[in-house]
Amino acid sequence: MSDAPACVDSSADRRPTPIHGRLDRAKHLHAVAQARQDGQSQRAAVIGAGVARSTLRHWNASPAPLAPAALSAFVETPEGVVWLRRILVAAHWSIGEQGGAGVRVVCDFLERSGLSAFIGASYGAQQAFQTDLEEQIVTAATELRGTLAQAMPHRTLSIAEDETWKDGMRLVGIDAVSNFILLKQRSDARSAAAWTRALEGGLEGLNVTVVQGTSDEAKGLLAHVERDLDAHHATDLFHLQHEVSQAMSLSLKRTEQQAETAEAEAKARWQGECAAEQAYHRRRHGPGRPPAFAARIEEALSASVQASLAREQAHAHRAEAKALIGAFSEVDHPYEIQQGQAQTPEQLETRLGTLFARLEAIAEEADLSERLRAHLAKAKRLTHSLVATLTFFFMMVNTRVQALDLAPAIEQAMLDDLIPALYLERAAARSTRAEPRHRLRELSAQCLAPLRQPSHPIQSLDPQTRHHLEQVAGECADLFQRSSSCVEGRNGFLALYQHGHHRLGPRKQQVLTALHNFAIKRPDGTTAAERFFAQPHPSLFEQVLERMPWPARPARRRPRPARQPYLVPVAA
Asked: Which domain of life is it from (predicted)?
């Protein structure tokens, strides 16, 4: 790579670009020093290095930085200049781009670490460096995407789509399996036509077929997926649960709070009546009928008991409704998470109907308003979409497995054991609690145990064929998608990022997308692009590093004139 011109520190005056860049300077100095060590004169050394003696004297006359001598000598070598560039790019990459901090934080890092002795740490110099870095990140990611697309195998995609509202409306589409951002485009409309045009641009050059789209029930998205893409639309389960929560949660919580208040008031009244009776008997009284304390206390006690029962019922209604909302997530699986057996669409429809029947009974007992019951009815109408998604899943799985043309015993093992085991393993990875996670992994291992026996027909296949079957089974397990949480999570990340920057410009959003796809790694060490294109790729950081200019030298600090007091007397 040729030596790029050095950035000029903004604290210095505007001056022409130096003839010798920083790396050239380090190479010349190293060559002269090596020639002097070999016994050559200074004149012969500079002639051999191809640099004027006056230039060499100017370089050697530069003030020595306030840093260890060994480090100062190292950064004047070619290796030291390359190391400085790596440190500076890494600082902007990790602090400014991924960390979300500003340029001033990078400048502060250079000052505190002592690197400002070798790198211009002014805001102007580092702002120009960060701008160049962001442009190179976007360019390198675009080139990398095109290179990987040329060799990618054909893939069937299940995409998650939604809008985000960061500095204007943007349409976002993500591959639900690999978490690769396919689409992030500014748009003035979210109609079906706008979504289709945007996705066509996002899929340009990719060897893929969209078979499923997961999103909310917006009419534009429905028409975009079902009509324009001719794909299956999978309803986001969260939106069904959200509708049920809107119908039940707040109203039941308010009812429980009112019941607790009524219980406390009834108990206080009963205690007051008891205290009044005790106070009456402690005093001496004349003739006359005493107050009917027994009747009052009995009435207050009865009211207190009724209030306690009402509070217990309200608490039970709220707890049961919360459990039923969570039960939707446990029921909506192609394989039962208790036994690992396939769940038919009829079974799913029956279980969903049972959940809604109990929710409707709670709504009746709690006397919810018609407006709230309308939310519950809206959620119930979505059950047919969940059942349709399950039907689509098994249809696609059977088609994929039958296309392999396997022996009957191996085909049955794929359908009954291997695919369920891989699905349960994925469900375990998504579980947030330890107990169900361990249980699902044990259930997955139980499904795999017969296939690992030497006597099983699948073990008679060659390793390459078994690897291919595992790959197909994993793709089948990934076909069941019931959530667009990858898009919601990305939108939440952008919201936090925007909170610290007040705005997200187009270039910054492109940079964040490039880092998401090609730089950020999961615990298994893979990027989203590596999972999406099914092939490793060169490091985005290393590619950008080779394109960046050399760090600017720190400008010579000039003394600032002392500020004169405002009330200096003027000479007469």
From this structure: Bacteria
pLDDT at residue 554, rounded to an integer: 85
Can you tell me which residue has the tokens 């009435």? Answer: 299
Q: What is the pLDDT of residue 56?
A: 66
Residue whose tokens read 């070999």: 38
Distances (CA, A) of 270 to 261, 302, 437: 14, 9, 50
**pLDDT single digits (tens) 252-307:** 999 999 999 999 999 999 999 899 888 888 887 777 788 888 898 899 999 999 99
Q: Which residues pair with 270 in a beta bridge?
A: none
3 state DSSP class of 155: strand
Which one, of 183, 179, 200, 173, lies nearest residue 518 by Cα?
179
Instruction: Tell me which DSSP letter residue 287 carries.
Output: S
Contact 120, 505 (CB under 8 A): no
- Specify the long-range contacts of residues 457-461, CB closer than 8 Å, at least 24 apart: 457/407, 457/409, 457/410, 457/413, 458/410, 458/413, 461/410
Cβ atoms of 507 and 134 within 8 Å: the answer is yes
The pLDDT tens digits of the residues spanning 440-488 come to 999 999 999 999 999 999 999 999 999 999 999 999 999 999 999 999 8
b/e burial code for range 94-124 (CB count within 10 A of at least 16 → b): ebbbeebbbbeebbebbeeeebbbbbbbbeb
Residue closest to 270 by CA, chosen among 243, 245, 304:
304
Collapsing DSSP to helix, strand or coil, 182 comes out as strand
pLDDT in tens, 516-530: 999 999 989 999 999
Find the helix or strand (DSSP H, E) in which 314 lies: helix 293-331
Residue 13 has pLDDT above 80, yes or no: no
Establish how many alpha carbons lie within 13 A of residue 230's alpha carbon, considering only the half-sphere containing its beta carbon: 1
Q: Which of 120, 115, 81 is nearest to 3 (CA)?
A: 81
For every residue of 429-477, DSSP letters joined together read HH-SSHHHHHHHHHHHHHHHTGGGSTTSGGGGS-HHHHHHHHHHHHHHH
CA 475 to chain centroid? 22
Confirm if 160 and 484 have CB atoms less than 8 A apart. yes
pLDDT tens digit sequence for 177-208 = 999 999 988 888 889 999 999 999 999 999 99
- d(CA 366, CA 569) in angstroms, rounded, equals 84
Round to whole Å and give the CA distance between 196 and 215. Answer: 14
Q: Where are the alpha helices (DSSP H) in 114-226?
A: 123-151, 192-202, 219-223
User: Which one, of 129, 126, 9, 135, lies nearest residue 510 by Cα?
Assistant: 135
Query: Residue 198: enclosing H or E segment and its boundaries?
Result: helix 192-202
> How far is residue 398 CA from its own chain's centroid?
32
> What residue ranges do the domains of the chain occupy?
18-62, 237-282+293-386
